[in-house]
Structure formats: C-alpha cells, structure tokens
C-alpha cells in the first residue's frame, strides 16, 4: 500500500522542534552500542598508532617534524562506514512490516528522514572529532619547541574538517540511495557505485586512451566523485599544507551534499511501501547500476582476457564491449531480480549498455576530436619533459625524508628545449601514431612525453619499434640529453671522495688522486658529448673496456648507504655511480694511460671456464639506458660470484675452455644485454688477485657463434623483429611454452622439434638475409618448436611477448 498520511506535509509545519530532536536522540540510543564500537575501533586504529609513532619519532629540528594524520584509516572508514550507516538507519524501508509501522506514525516524512540523517551526522562526526582532538593534544606535547601549537592545531583541525566533509558527502549520497532501494543489499551496492562511478568511468576512458593509442590525458579526474576525493586526499597525507584546490573541491562537494539532502527528501516522499523487500524492481537507479556493471565488465574482459588473445587491441576492446556489456548487465539483473524474468523488457537497456560500452573505443577510433593524432606545432612547444623507462635498468634514489633508506626506479626525467631535440621528439611522436601498437623490438622501453605549450600541457606515452632506434639514439646523443642523463655532469671535485678505475671484468686498477679529478671530469664529459648515434648501441664496434667508480663525500649523500641517483625534492641530482668506459673514449683512456692505468688491458689470469647459457625473459629486453649498479656489480671485490643458473638446477649450458676462444669472448662481452638476442655468459676464474670469482656478462649471439665456430650445439637466438613475427603467428598461453626440464641436447634435437630455419620456411619468413654463415648453420641445427606448435625449447620466450 501507499501511505499518504505523512506525505501531505503542510507548509506551516515546524521542522526543527522538540519532536525532531527527540526522534534523533531515540535513533542515537537505538544505535548507541554500534556507535560506541565504532568509536573504540577508531581509537584503536588512529590514536594508539599515533601514540606509538610519537614515542619512536625523535625529530631534531623543525624541518624533520612530520605530523601524523592517520589518513589511510580515515580514508578506509570514509569509504565503508557511511554506506553501511545509511543502510542501517533506513533499514525500516526495506521491510514491509517496518515501513508500514513507521509511516503510520503521526510524524511527517521530513522529520522522519531528518531525524535519522542528523543522527547519522552525529554518529560519524563525534568519533572522528574525539580521536583527532586526542591526537592533536599528543602531537602538541611531542613537538613542543619544534613547532607552534597554533600551527599544529590549525593544520590538523583543517585536516579534520576535510575528512568530516568527505564522510558526510558519502553518507548523504548513500542516504539518497537508501530511501529509494527495496533492500539493504541494493542500498549498499548502489551506494558504493554512485559514490565512485564518475571517477571510475573517466579512469576507464583514460586507460583505454593510453592502452589503445598511447594518449596520456593529464586532466585530474579524482575530484569527480566522493570516493575519488577520498583517494586523492589520502595520497596527500605526507604534505604539511593543504592545497587550495583541495579546499575548493571540498567546498563544492559540501554544497552538492547539501543539495543532496533536498533531493533525498524529494525521493523519500515518492517511496511506496510495497517497494520494500522487492527484488529486481525496475527503477532508474537499478538500470543505471546494470549499465555501469556492463561498462566495468567490458573493460575487465578487455584487459584480462581479450587483449592477451588478440593482436589488435582495438579489436579486443570492441569484442570486450560486445561481450562484457550484456554479461555485466545480466549478472546484476540475475542477482537483484533472482532470475531473468524481465529479460524481454530489458533488451532495450542491454542494447543501450552495449552502445555505452562502445562509446569510448569508437570515439577514440575516430580520433576523439583530434586527441589521438594531435602533435603540437614546433613553434608552440616551449619545452618537452621526457620520462625514459627501461624494463631492466634500475636507478637507486635515496629517501631524504628517511635518511639511510633507499628505493629503486627504472626511469629518468629529462627536459629538452633545443630545436633539434623538439624535432626528434615530434618525429618519434608521429611514428608512434602511425605504428599504433604494431611495433616490434623495443618491448620493455617507453617514452612519456609532456609538451609544455603556451597555455596548457599535453601528455603522451608510447613504446617504439626497432626501426625507430636510430632516431632514439640521435635523441640520446643530444648535448642537453647527455648532460642530464650522465652523472659526471653534476659532479665537481669538491664533492668527490674517491674515483677508482676498473677493467671490464671489475678488476681493480688504481685510484685517481684528488688533484686530478677536474682533468678527469673534463675528459669524460668531452667523450660522452662526442659519442655518436651510430656507436651508442653498437658495442661490437665500440666495446666496453672498463669502469670508473665515483663515490661522493658522506656529507653530500647524507648518512646511510649511498645511491646511484638521489632525488631531493623536485630536483634530481646524481649520487654515487659507476661509469662504463668504452673504447671510443679516447680523451679518458689517454689521460688514464698517462697516469699509469690501462683498463682496456683486461686482467685474464686465472680464467679457466666460460659457461654459456640461454637467456631468460629478463635478459631479452633492449635497454635504451644501459647502466650498471655500482653496488651490486661487485667492482674490485675479491671472490665475487654471480650465481650461475646451473647452481639452481638449470641443465642447459655450454662450457668453453679453449684459451683463445675465452679471450675473444671476454673482449666481445658487455655487462648488460644489448639486444634480445644476447646470451648470458659466466666467466669463471681463480687467481691471486681476484680469488675464486664468477662474473655474469652478456654477448651477442651472432658474435658468440662466430667465435665458437666449431661448436655444433650452441643455439641460434631470434632477434627482436623475429621474435615479434613469431608471436604474431604463434599465439599461445604462457604455460604452453614450457617443456619442463631440458638438456643441452634438446636444442639440437631436430627429429623432435622443428628447426628455426624450417619454421621460417614453413611460414614464409625471411630470416636469412644478412646472416653470417655461422648463423645460417645454427638456424638449421637449432631445435625450436614442436610440430604441433605447443612447446618451444626457447627459455624465457613465454613472458617476453607480454
């Protein structure tokens, strides 16, 4: 039935009277135990940890003071508690007996709603306020003399105000859903969706733009929903000031929450008693939830299922929309409606869901108003900020907020402003658009581009094809790029504690005297600026011959363990590092020779075995930024040993013991993989100078085959372009590449497996042009893949292509 007794509210009714506050107090008494439990829980997760942290935290000056906000726990409660509270306070609407009883009371629906809404405000605000006030008092005592009480209280009170606003905003929108829902499950699920849907939708759109076309949209979308606001503000917990834009957005959401109260009242007046306990009731909210479920399911299926299966990502996304849209819609329909009795009536809504799911990929496919193919004009570019990522090259940064601790990263920031650098980046951008995702060879590497334009910024991120490598190498050799990416350009003699020289295998040569630091810096900087694009990644023509280890004075890098890259605020500066010396660095090598050091004369005494292994997925990526970590490379360490895979049970390796071949292998090897077709080699020696040592290096497969010509077992390795062609033909899941334990003999077992050459012939692939006789011979004898295409002997191939 529909009760009208309480819906006909008279304009003369006095809302805020004793009756309202009496009902509010009754509601609080009814939920008093729950509120007490919430308060105790909040004390346990916010007050006690703060008390413990303050006991352990001993700042020595004002700059070291870090206020404790417990933001993670407030964020968690802000996401969960208001939603549950709204469902609890308006639970009577979800029971037919209760709703008739409440609506038969001589009280207007306005008072009934507001009494419970205000009780919810008290329920949420009082525990947070009590906990925060206790924390403020504790921190005022803890930081007495280091920070004024006014500053501590003002910041933490403002922080408290923001958390109250965010909690109440989520609560208000949850109440709006609760007074239109038929059961508690709908109330909770729909509330969660409404409080986060806009941020989620925009996030999915931005993700699709980036995954399909490399478009990195720099517009902030966290502020589009209460949950997004909570996530965004929680990530700012380290800051000592609250940004003005956060205050503005909080004010906007506070106004929207106030408007939400009036909307909730309006919706509450439209509630019918017979709606209670209904499952599958068709309403605007229920249809919206099904549409959102379809949208989310289409994205999940695209990312997790169809994208790995299909080569064309746009095609995968369209299939995800066509399959995931109806699937997500029907999933919610089946749960809320306890079946599919309304399937016929919902066909038009399912069609609408599919249409919405197709909106993003179709919009982007047709260039999205130019956002996909847009490249700024050269004259409009003020500067370009690049983020260069490489999968395996890691750099260490020291955490200045926590002296003595460090973390690693695999990227560098470079700012470009020269005309030629801008032209190169624009050309790379153009090529990336033309290539789409049909690139090969440089997997694991990417460039994120941020154009600074007269009135805006534009962000894009791409991976690049092997054919783009010459252009990338030219960019990497631009003077402004070199000066920002090489540590020696940030060094001065005054900050250096020591500089040591080592040969290619890390054998100690000598230490440079302090008065010679400036000469050495000048020579090294000149050689780095003279390195040509043609030689940058050609380690066969310009091999590695040694290393220079640069150690800064402890006062420069702060107490604790040194690092390769130190990040201090927004400015990135270099700390301790190891510079790779190449044969073309003639200024450096001549200077070192005049001081009695010749790192190019590699110490070979005691080398008795070089073990050759097949690469794993880690070894198969091209590193645009080839570096070594001076701490883990073991420079100058006696008895230094890299653990060989054979010590972990790997049976696939070949031992080289011929002295001439070993010397040639050492001369040609590098400390890092230079392409996807490098074999890892382990150089084992036993000498008085180095002790019992084993060092991991890499060598190009083509060079390896030319050195060990008489070997009939060492396998041919596919280069990056061949690997990409292989995966376009042979699409299988990871597990189907595994064959269990292999032996070296399996790699020449062409009676069981197809050889590389046979596979190329069967698939009309030109893998033979430009190959050496040794490579062609190895292609014929290398067992590669089973005739049914399910198993490959190629270790590491299973994860490379993902």
pLDDT < 50 stretches: 1-11, 398-406, 558-572, 732-740, 798-802
Biggest sheet record? 5 strands, antiparallel
By DSSP (H or I, 4+ residues per run), the number of helices equals 25
| Helicity level | 40-55%
Give the structural class: alpha+beta
Coarse shape: globular
Ends distance: 59 Å
Classify the beta-strand content into a percent band.
Answer: 5-15%
Quantity of strands, as a count: 19
What's the average pLDDT? 80
Largest beta sheet: strand ordering: 1-7-6-2-5
Describe the model.
It is a single chain. This protein is α+β, with helices and mostly antiparallel strands. The protein is 47% helix and 14% strand. The protein is built from 25 helices and 19 strands. The strands form six sheets. It has a five-stranded antiparallel beta sheet. A four-stranded antiparallel beta sheet has the order 9-8-10-13. A hairpin with a 2-residue loop joins strand 11 and strand 12. Helix 5 packs antiparallel against helix 6 (149-178). The longest helix has 34 residues, at 109-142. The chain is globular. The chain starts with 17 loop residues before the first helix and ends with a helix.
Short description:
With 802 residues, this protein is of the alpha+beta class. It is 47% helix and 14% strand.
Secondary structure topology:
Blueprint: H1 18-30, H2 32-56, H3 71-89, H4 96-103, H5 109-142, H6 149-178, H7 184-213, E1 215-216, H8 226-234, H9 244-269, H10 284-309, H11 313-336, H12 343-365, E2 383-390, E3 395-398, E4 406-409, E5 411-416, H13 419-435, E6 445-452, E7 457-462, H14 469-476, H15 479-485, E8 496-503, E9 508-511, H16 517-530, H17 533-536, E10 544-552, H18 554-557, E11 565-568, E12 571-574, E13 577-582, H19 586-594, E14 607-613, E15 653-656, H20 659-668, E16 678-687, E17 691-700, H21 701-707, H22 720-729, E18 754-755, H23 756-762, H24 773-781, E19 783-785, H25 797-800
Antiparallel strand pairs: 1-7, 2-5, 2-6, 3-4, 6-7, 8-9, 8-10, 10-13, 11-12, 14-15, 14-16, 16-17, 18-19
């Amino acid at each position: 039935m529909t009760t009208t007794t309480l819906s006909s509210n008279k304009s003369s009714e006095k809302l805020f009277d004793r009756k309202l506050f009496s009902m509010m107090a009754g509601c609080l008494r009814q939920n008093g135990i729950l509120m007490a439990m919430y308060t105790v829980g909040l004390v346990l997760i916010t007050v006690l940890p703060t008390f413990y942290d303050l006991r352990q935290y001993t700042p020595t000056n004002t700059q070291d003071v870090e206020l404790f906000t417990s933001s993670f726990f407030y964020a968690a409660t802000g996401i969960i508690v208001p939603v549950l509270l709204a469902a609890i306070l308006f639970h009577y609407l979800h029971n037919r007996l209760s709703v008739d009883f409440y609506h038969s009371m001589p009280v207007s629906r306005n008072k009934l709603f507001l009494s419970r809404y205000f009780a919810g405000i008290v329920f949420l605000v009082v525990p947070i306020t009590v906990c925060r006030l206790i924390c403020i008092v504790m921190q005022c005592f803890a930081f007495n003399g280091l920070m004024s009480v006014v500053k501590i209280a003002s910041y933490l009170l403002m922080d408290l105000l923001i958390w109250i606003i965010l909690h109440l905003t989520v609560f208000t929108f949850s109440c709006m859903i609760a007074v239109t829902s038929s059961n508690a499950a709908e109330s909770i699920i729909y509330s969660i969706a409404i409080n986060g849907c806009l941020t989620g939708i925009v996030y999915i759109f931005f993700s699709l733009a980036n995954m399909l076309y490399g478009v990195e949209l720099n517009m902030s979308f966290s502020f589009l929903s209460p949950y997004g606001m909570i996530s965004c503000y929680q990530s700012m917990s380290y800051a000592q000031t609250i940004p003005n834009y956060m205050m503005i957005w909080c004010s906007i959401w506070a106004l929207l929450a106030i408007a939400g109260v009036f909307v909730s009242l309006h919706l509450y007046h439209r509630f019918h008693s017979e709606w209670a306990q209904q499952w599958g009731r068709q309403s605007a909210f229920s249809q919206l939830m099904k549409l959102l479920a379809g949208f989310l399911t289409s994205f999940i299926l695209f990312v997790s299922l169809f994208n790995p299966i299909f080569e064309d990502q746009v095609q995968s996304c369209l299939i995800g929309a066509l399959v995931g849209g109806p699937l997500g819609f029907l999933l919610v329909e089946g749960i809320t409606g306890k079946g599919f009795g309304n399937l016929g009536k919902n066909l038009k809504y399912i069609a609408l869901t599919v249409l919405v799911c197709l909106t993003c990929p179709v919009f982007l496919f047709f260039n999205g108003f130019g956002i996909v193919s847009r490249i700024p004009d050269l004259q409009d570019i003020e500067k370009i900020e690049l983020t260069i990522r490489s999968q395996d090259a890691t750099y260490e940064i020291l955490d200045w907020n926590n002296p003595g601790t460090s973390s690693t990263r695999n990227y560098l920031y470079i700012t470009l402003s020269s005309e030629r650098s801008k032209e190169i980046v624009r050309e790379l951008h153009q090529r990336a658009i033309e290539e789409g995702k049909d690139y090969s060879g440089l997997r694991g590497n990417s460039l994120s581009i941020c154009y600074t334009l007269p009135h805006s910024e534009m962000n894009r991120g791409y991976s690049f094809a092997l054919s783009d490598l010459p252009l990338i190498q030219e960019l990497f050799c631009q003077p402004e790029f070199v000066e920002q990416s090489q540590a020696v350009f940030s060094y001065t003699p005054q900050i250096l504690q020591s500089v040591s020289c080592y040969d290619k295998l890390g054998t100690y040569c000598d230490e440079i005297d302090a008065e010679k630091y400036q000469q050495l810096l000048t020579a090294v900087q000149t050689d780095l600026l003279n390195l040509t694009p043609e030689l940058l990644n050609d380690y066969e023509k310009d091999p590695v011959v040694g290393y220079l280890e640069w150690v800064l004075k402890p006062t420069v890098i702060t107490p604790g363990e040194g690092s390769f890259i130190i990040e201090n605020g927004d400015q990135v500066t270099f700390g301790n590092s190891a510079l790779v010396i190449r044969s073309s660095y003639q200024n450096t090598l001549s200077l070192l020779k005049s001081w009695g050091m010749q790192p190019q004369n590699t110490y070979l005494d005691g080398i008795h075995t070089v073990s050759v292994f097949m690469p794993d997925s880690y070894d198969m990526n091209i590193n645009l930024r080839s570096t070594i970590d001076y701490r883990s490379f073991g420079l100058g360490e006696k008895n230094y040993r890299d653990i060989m895979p054979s010590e972990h049970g790997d049976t696939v390796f070949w031992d080289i013991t011929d002295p001439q071949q070993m010397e040639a292998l050492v001369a040609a090897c590098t400390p890092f993989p230079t392409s996807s077709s490098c074999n890892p080699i382990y150089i084992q020696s036993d000498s008085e100078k180095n002790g019992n040592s084993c060092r991991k290096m890499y060598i190009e497969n083509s060079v390896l085959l030319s050195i060990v010509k008489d070997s009939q077992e060492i396998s041919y390795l596919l280069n990056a372009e061949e690997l990409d062609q292989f995966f376009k033909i042979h699409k299988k899941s990871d597990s189907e590449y595994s064959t269990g334990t292999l032996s070296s003999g399996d790699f020449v077992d062409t009676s069981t497996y197809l050889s590389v050459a046979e596979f190329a012939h069967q698939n009309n692939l030109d893998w033979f042009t430009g190959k050496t006789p040794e490579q062609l011979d190895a292609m014929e004898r290398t067992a590669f893949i089973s005739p049914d295409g399910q198993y490959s002997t190629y270790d590491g191939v299973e994860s490379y292509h993902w």
